[in-house]
Amino acid sequence: MALLEVNNLDVRFALRGGDVRALRDVCFTLDRGERLGIVGESGAGKSVAAFSLLNLIAKPGYIAGGSIIFDGKELSGMKDRGLRRVRGNRISMIFQDPMMTLNPVLSIGEQMVESLKAHRRISTREARAIALHKLNQVQIPSPETRLDQYPHELSGGMRQRVIIAIALLLDPDIIIADEPTTALDVTIQAEIMDLLLELCDKHNVGLVLITHDLGVVSQVTQRMLVMYAGRVIEQGPTREIINGPQHPYTQGLINALPQMATPGSRLNQIPGSMPSLSNLPSGCAFHPRCGFVNDANGAPRKACLDKVPGFVDSGNCRVACHMVAELVNQQQRDSREEVL
Amino acid sequence: MSDTIVPGRWARFRDSYLLYSFKRDLIAQVSLVIFALLIFAAVFAPWLAPANPYDLAQIDILASELPPFWIDGADPAYLMGTDAQGRDLLSTILYGARVSLIIGFGAVLMQAVIGVSFGLMAGYLGGRVDAFLMRLADIQLSFSTLMVAIIVGALVKAIFGGATFSEYAVPLLVLIIGLAEWPQYARTVRASVLAERSKEYVDAARVMGLKSRRIMFRHILPNTLSPIFVISTVQVANAIISEAALSFLGLGMPETHPSLGSLIKSGFDYIQSGSWWITLIPGAVLVILVLVINLLGDWLRDVLNPRLYKG
Amino acid sequence: MTAAVSQHDPKASAATAGNREQDTAAPLMEIRHLHKRFSLSGDFLEQLKFKSGKLIREQEYVHAINGIDLDIRRGEALCVVGESGCGKSTVARTVMGLLAPSQGEIRYEGQRIDNLSTKELLPYRRRMQMIFQNPYASLNPRMTIQQTLEEPIRLHHPDWSKERVRDQVRDVMDSVGIDSDWGPRFGHEFSGGQRQRIAIARALAVDPEFIVADEPISALDVSIQAQVLNLMMEAQQQRNLTYLFITHDLAVVEHFGTRVAVMYLGMVCELAPTGTLFAKPRHPYTQALLSAIPRLEDDRPQHIRLQGEVPTPVNLPSGCVFHGRCPHANERCRKEVPTLIDVEDGARVACHGVEEGRL
Predict the structure, then answer these.
(1) Model pTM?
(2) Mind listing the pLDDT tens digit for each residue in C314-324?
(3) For A268, which residue in chain C has the nearest alpha carbon?
(4) Looking at the structure, do residues C89 and C127 belong to the same domain, yes or no?
(5) Which of A4, A168, A243, C152 is the most exposed place for a label (fewest CB within 10 A)?
């Protein structure tokens, strides 16, 4: 059985115009030590998904349905008390902004000791030793002095290392990382990603990596989900999706990258922009932007306009598109022609 | 341009968060109703009041210190009783509220004009202009309103005589309170100008080649209106209180032309002799007036505060 | 299935980029010995300090730009890349006159523009415009789109009739793909991508020839980035624009740039035609930067790890600003500041190692 199993997760925000459904029918699993990427553009619901895993969505958001089963226990209806035992302890989070985790008026050491003592019965001295060990693991230079420094004395890259050390503090089973390197420079980003990857591997920690950066996902994760307008629209092994995306949106997203076009030529853009969650189009939410919505005669397909697509198994991937079968056939035809 | 897709101003207002939150806030609604009634009564005092307290011919000294209607010995002609000079208290309060509100709004208008322009200049131009204007504000704040009032009052009385002072009491009080409290505006506006100035639309306006004055008034000022509205409510309430305090101390409106403050003062001597209503009724009106303005201001601050309000 | 995604070949791209390369006679804009520092010490009173019994005036500076020489040629897209704090945005803002240079000169068609008054600068304002990073902050929230777009036209063409201004606004809205019926709407009613289109329309409204774009797509989503980049390239072809494009995204540079200037701590460490730079990066910092881009390719290439972190621009390192993190630094690098020297393929590199042939 998977370590984490999310079924039909439904998250809503109670707003003044009525409920806005931020997540619909989100399903995925994570095995022990597995690295899963959640990709999507802003507003796709990827951060909401991460936050709802630990029931951290703030009002007016609430979990309206579905289940989150972690290590055999249901989390979605759990009281705060039980959740606290899981949060930070067995599942920890890394945010985009390190200052969301770090308290600016406490030293790094104090914060690490505090969270250790909140979950374990150990002395301050033992806790400090563990903290020091973890700082060593994230390869921070002169960790002893860092323990007594305050967050503002560290650079952005250093802070994110400290965050990783804190996330690893209680030897969690899963780390949820929400855009952990987006605020950092490329060279630092590469180092932090390397570090995270190495540590997760070494300690057999599962990683849920939320990002908009397809390059990062393709290098770090084993499986990925692509989200659009609150739904998962494609999921499967990362390599297969990156090399052969099946959903028209995933295709569009990958083909829109500058590295996919000859320099100076026109980029393959997806027309339009993601609809607002409070005003979703009927049927498949992607259909107004989709290049495959029209049939051979140029008329829009009824299914795309009327029916929300369910998941179709296609190879090792699952795709939520009415057109998958046809698209795959066409691609195979295309590649045969290319070979010929 | 088709009107079907672009909502007009009225439609936008109907759709706005302002109206929405007003509809859900009972305190704001009650406050607005009371405030509107008080304004209405003050504006239309000459038509609403049973008597004209400024008209000496209508005053009957024999009818002085009559109690309000619910106490024995009241004269039904004087609903709220009369003061020590025999003026109808209801009429005097209506006229007094009128004077208080004129001074309150007038002073705030003056504060706003000085404070907003200084704040805009200090925030946008920065450097020496900023340092100079803000030190000026510090100096101004270190004088209390009372001191300004005493100095100006004494000067005017010494140069032009007491009669002139009484005659021009309203504009003088507007001037005094306006001068004394402009730094509140200047500081608030400066703070929000500093926040706005770092936004890219201001850079865009500069890159376009617009003059500083146009950028300040056309681009930055409209974006600092929310805090200006919020402090305006507080400042109106403060100005009314300041005026009442000055008048109570004899530095404000003369008793022949009373504001709420001077009414309270005129009745103060008679509290001991049992005629409490001359002081307490105008006092209650003053408290209610200031309270509803502050409550409305609180509501406005909650609604307009961008940190609390999210789309 | 791999056919859906064309694998990218860096050699082919180098060749095409090389073909686009063209040398034109006089540069449109020249930046000479540009320095910009910001005082950290506040006003005069805050600068006074007591030290060993004496009252002294002490000032600390952030050295954002430390001597930059750049030519921007007519019709090219010069990209400036670097990590945060390297001074690339300061270059953009100084070029546009939003900041006054501490030292150095900026010339537009040979005419010095950095010391002109607002009024004298006005004719240049029409010819050079700017696009900003954050489309959520670059539109005045209290102005309608129509007002936003009319303002620059009215300012620079006070003699135009109302109809002519309105026609110009409609034309420019059409050209960036914004429905011209949306004029009476406010910026907040639009999505990020649409707002950036409006911001581009505002820059294009006065028919400029030179546009400074400061991270114009970094705040946008991937699918929208492509739209905006396409729009900017279209505008360049149709209007014969020259771009100074500031970005941290090397993939965008590779696609968009004619030439690239790589900046580190306020200095240009490598300046080369795009194809050359990506095919053969010479400066150790450029090499590290290029190797750190996350790519879609299967095998994760070992990226070059740099030691330490970027030093603060308050106390600049002696010699080459990069020496503290450079794996090839020697004694000379620690002492002597390298200057840009010409190497083959039209590239210029500021590195003692390259000059000496060690690298």
Answers:
(1) 0.84
(2) 888 889 999 98
(3) C226
(4) no
(5) A243
Whether the CB-CB separation of B296 and B233 falls below 8 Å is answered with yes
* ipTM value for the complex: 0.84
Q: What is the pLDDT of residues B17-66, one digit of tens each?
A: 778 888 888 889 999 999 999 999 888 888 887 778 777 777 777 777 77
Asked whether the beta carbons of residue C118 and residue B211 sit closer than 8 angstroms, the reply is: yes
Q: B176, B192, B188: which is closest to B232 by C-alpha?
A: B188
Q: Is residue C160 part of a domain?
A: yes
Contact status of A255 with chain C (Cβ, < 8 Å): yes
Tokens representing residue A292 in the block: 């495959």
B271 C-beta neighbours (distance < 10 Å), count: 13
Distance (Å) from the alpha carbon of C266 to chain B's nearest alpha carbon: 22
CATH number of B21-304: 1.10.3720.10
The pLDDT, as a whole number, for residue A339 is 60
Q: How far apart are CA C52 and CA A133, in angstroms?
A: 43
Which helix (H) or strand (E) segment holds residue A330: the answer is helix A324-339
Inter-chain touch A185–C84, beta carbons under 8 Å: yes
Residues of chain A with Cβ-Cβ distance to C192 below 8 Å are 42, 273
Of B60-64, B129-133, C277-281, the one with minimum mean pLDDT is: B60-64
CA distance readout (Å), C260 to C30, C70, C74, C245, C268: 15, 11, 15, 9, 10
pLDDT at B310: 34
**Chains with ≥3 Cβ pairs under 8 A against C?**
A, B
Looking at CA atoms only, how far is residue B9 from chain C in angstroms?
Answer: 11
Name the closest residue on chain B to residue C43, using Cα atoms. B127
Alpha carbon distance B164, B156 (integer Å): 8
Model confidence pLDDT, tens digit, residues A33-81: 999 999 998 888 888 888 888 888 877 888 888 899 998 888 887 887 8
**pLDDT, mean of residues C138-165:** 93
Query: Is residue A289 a contact partner of residue A233, using CB atoms and an 8 Å limit?
Result: no
Which of C142, C144, C170, C206 is the best mutation test for B, with the most CBs of B within 10 A? C142
Do the domain assignments include residue C269? yes
Whether C251 is covered by a domain: the verdict is: no
Domain ranges in chain B?
A: 21-304
For the beta carbon of residue C305, count every other beta carbon within 10 angstroms: 14
The residue of A154, A213, A243 whose CB has the most chain C CBs within 10 angstroms, and thus the best one to mutate to test that interface, is A243
Interface of B with C in 102-131 (CB under 8 A): 131
pLDDT of A340 reads: 57
Partners of chain A (3+ Cβ pairs below 8 A): C
Domain carrying residue C187: 116-245
Question: Of A22-26, A182-186, B104-108, C120-124, which range is least confident?
Answer: A182-186
**Contact (CB<8Å) A256/C275:** no
Number of compact structural domains in chain C: 2
